[in-house]
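Hi R.,

As promised, here are both runs. First protein below:
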Amino acid sequence: MNVLQLLDLFIQWDWSTYLADYGQPNCKYLRVNPVTALTLLEKMKDTSRKNNVFAQFRKNERDKQKLIDTVAKQLRGLISSHHS
């Protein structure tokens, strides 16, 4: 796994590209393992929930959590479809 590609994916929040191009020989995030990405995403979600007890009351935080949940669900689907 290339750490720079993983960091770029998270900093750019470029999940649509990652999910659309996954498995292609020339994809931008070729070296990012979906299991690693999912693990890191879930750690972010857990940390965010622990640090923001009242986060569910702020629309911004709720939207961010929904987006993280959606990406995590898509990653799980990607993992199960490529590992079965």
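And here is the second one, sequence first, then its structure tokens:
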Amino acid sequence: MEIFTKKLTAMDIQRGLVLPRCSLDRLQSFHGTIELSTIFESAAGNRLVGPVTIHCSTRSGDVAFTTGWYALARDAGLTSGDTVTFYQEVNGEARYKLKLRNVGSS
């Protein structure tokens, strides 16, 4: 189930990925911080890294990916204009999937 798709900005990469407000009703309810075991894939479905844990926390009234997200964004070479789609997909390794589409890819 798709939770959200977002075109990244420089702020998303540098300060944490702020989740679109419309996605909050599709994400489990929480207060404070939760850890999301996530598989990260390219648009072609190739796994970029093993399952990672992304911390999702409330910040200034927004929900954002923070710890774990920064290293993931850096290691994957994410840039402003790339698009990420976040899914809930229960399987043996992780509960979530984050799929990347780079600016130059079709």
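A quick note on the second one: The longest strand covers residues 47-59. Let me know what you think.

Best,
J.
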